[in-house]
Amino acid sequence: MAxxxxxxxxISSVQKTKQVTAAMKMVSAAKLKxxxxxxxxxxxxxxxxxxxxxxxxxxxxxxxxNLYGKERKPEKVLLVAITSNKGLCGAFNANVIKQVTxxxxxxxxxxxxxxxxxxxxxxxxxxxxxRKSYNVIGEYNHVYNELNFENVSAIASSVMxxxxxxxxxxxxxxYNQFKNAGVQILTTEQFLPIIQSxxxxxxxxEYIFEPNQEDILEDLIPKSLRTQFFKAMxxxxxxxxxxxxxxxxxxxxxxxxLIQDLNLTYNKARQSAITNEILEIVSGxxxxxx
Length: 290
What we know:
This protein is α/β, with parallel strands linked by helices.
């Protein structure tokens, strides 16, 4: 059994860790509220804009007019892995990294072998891991310093320009979609080219274009794509704080349980030491009496 000093030292260490995890939980809870409000506000707008975009794409007479809807054989693929800059958030980052690894080994195994599968890492955690095994062409860790539409729009515009130029035939986003503080849904979403679901193909809306169809194409479609990209970032950001708050809550509870066990061990060791001292005193007294 460890001596009393070692147990006291360990109890003190665990108590300090508990204070840190409890503080991190409170910070994440405060940040989660703001991030949750942001994603809840933008989600209806982004979904409606996506619906309009899908119907607009379906109504185009000439597919060549839609630069962002051209379907090509996916010889060159870009995966955008959205993780966080910091850890201590459970399996939040690991799930995204694992999904990218699965896609690289299954759906895009041929492209990966040819070197035409590229990874764009948003978040330091994903960048540090993925660059060891895959062709990571860039990282945007700084975007979390000020997460707003302008900064995210610049990233989306760069990806869109590369698709239009033919550098990539397909672009997919891999991120955690926010459901609630305790649940994050790992999502793989095709960003480019624009696709329609079967339900969207069944229900199409006839639009009257003002001022004309060309201006709508040049403005609405890029704006919708940038909004979808921004929504994915907000989803991931809210999911990160939800995952970290949950992880720190569990860590704090585990620290409390460990402190309780260590206190019990300390009391037993202290009682044993006192008993031994009493036995030594009694034995010494008996020896003197003889």
